[in-house]
Design a protein that fits this description.
Helix content of chain B: 55-70%
Shape of chain B: elongated
Number of domains of chain B: 1
Radius of gyration of chain A: 24 Å
Strand content of chain B: 5-15%
Largest interface: A-B, 23 and 32 residues
Number of helices of chain A: 7
Helix content of chain A: over 70%
Structural class of chain B: alpha+beta
Order of helices and strands of chain A: HHHHHHH
CATH superfamily of chain B: Winged helix-like DNA-binding domain superfamily/Winged helix DNA-binding domain
CATH class of chain B: Mainly Alpha
Number of helices of chain B: 6
Distance between the termini of chain B: 56 Å
CATH architecture of chain B: Orthogonal Bundle
Order of helices and strands of chain B: HHHEHHEEH
Number of strands of chain A: 0
Strand content of chain A: under 5%
Radius of gyration of chain B: 16 Å
Oligomer: heterodimer
Number of strands of chain B: 3
Structural class of chain A: mainly alpha
Shape of chain A: elongated
CATH topology of chain B: Arc Repressor Mutant, subunit A
Strand order of the largest sheet of chain B: 1-3-2
Number of domains of chain A: 1
């Protein structure tokens, strides 16, 4: 005789429960990721910073004195900081968060110390007359800042930091004359490439 | 004022007790489940607070994409259970409500995760 209730309820029940448990765990993980990461890093900002840095690299390479070369890059740093603040602020605002909500604050707190060290080491190198060696220091410390801050952001951000650190390491072991080119590749090229990826994949 | 809010809270607790009498058929199969944390919005609030020292009402609202009313009801329930703590202050003239996860709340989330893992484990073995 064929039973009227063919589905084996004993095995069906637990499987559904199992799926629901998996789904709950996935939900918790996704919420934590969304709540814990700083997604206001602006890809368009990166592209803009990269373009101004490429311009700065060209202008800086034509300067006769080291001081004028340094001033060119300092001006570029100021412009880049302005672009970064403005684009990050507007992306955060359009996403409905602020720069200083939980993850944003941690991003800034981890990003700032390496940059501060970079400024001090620049002063030191200038004082001992070795400013031509500064490219590696800048790339390494900026990379460190991006890796540290990027820990609280989308995964591609720390990857960009790592690329900066690789370039910085290369700059340290190459002739100082190549420094300007390394700065152009790093602050120009890497920003444009990663900026484009972030803008394409993570909405601006 | 304290007495007033105490009375208010007691009334609310009474209400939430009545509410929990109704058993959710979808979860009836899992005994000993922490139902305070099991509900989706409350689970999201606790998960979001687990990775942030504190979040404001507006942070949570935008993050979880829920309405004011929905968020305040669920946050209240978590607060009543002692899973989250709430501080109210003023940011200029705007009232600001800030939530953070308490130690019991963190334990509850860990227990809930353990529970889910045990469920998966049990099906794998059975």
């Amino acid at each position: 005789m064929v039973p009227l209730r063919p589905p084996p309820t004993q095995s069906r029940g637990p499987v559904a429960l199992d799926d629901r448990a998996r789904d709950n765990i996935r939900f918790i993980r996704e919420t934590m990721e969304r709540a814990g990461s700083f997604t206001a890093v602006s890809g368009w900002g990166g592209i803009a910073m990269g373009i101004t840095a490429l311009g700065a690299a060209v202008i800086a390479s034509r300067q006769d004195s080291t001081l004028l070369w340094l001033i060119t890059w300092m001006a570029e740093a100021a412009v880049a900081i302005g672009i970064a603040l403005w684009t990050t602020y507007s992306k955060a605002r359009s996403a409905g968060t602020t720069l200083f909500s939980g993850p944003g604050r941690r991003f800034v707190y981890s990003f700032a110390p390496p940059l501060f060290v970079g400024v001090l080491l620049t002063i030191l190198l200038f004082r001992i007359g070795s400013i031509s060696e500064v490219a590696g220091v800048w790339l390494l410390l900026y990379g460190t800042a991006v890796v540290a801050g990027g820990a609280f952001s989308i995964r591609i951000v720390p990857l960009m930091g790592l690329c900066f650190m690789v370039l910085g390491t290369m700059a340290i072991f190459c002739p100082p004359g190549w420094g300007n080119a390394f700065l152009g590749i790093g602050f120009g090229g890497l920003h444009v490439i990663f900026g484009a990826v972030i803008a394409g994949r993570y909405g601006g | 004022m304290a007495a007033k809010s105490g009375a208010f809270r007691a009334a609310r607790e009474e209400k939430s007790k009545q509410g929990s009498v109704a058993v959710d058929p979808a979860t009836a199969a899992a005994p000993n489940l922490d139902r305070v944390i099991h509900e989706r919005t409350r689970l999201a609030i606790v998960s979001a607070l687990a990775v942030n020292a504190s979040l404001t009402f507006n942070d949570l609202k935008q993050l979880l994409r829920v309405t004011d009313g929905n968020l305040s009801v669920h946050a209240r329930k978590l607060e009543d259970s002692g899973y989250i703590a709430c501080t109210k202050s003023f940011d200029g003239r705007m009232p600001k409500t800030e939530y953070r996860l308490t130690a019991p709340g963190r334990r509850a989330l860990e227990k809930y995760l353990d529970h889910m893992e045990a469920l998966i484990q049990a099906t794998r073995e059975g």
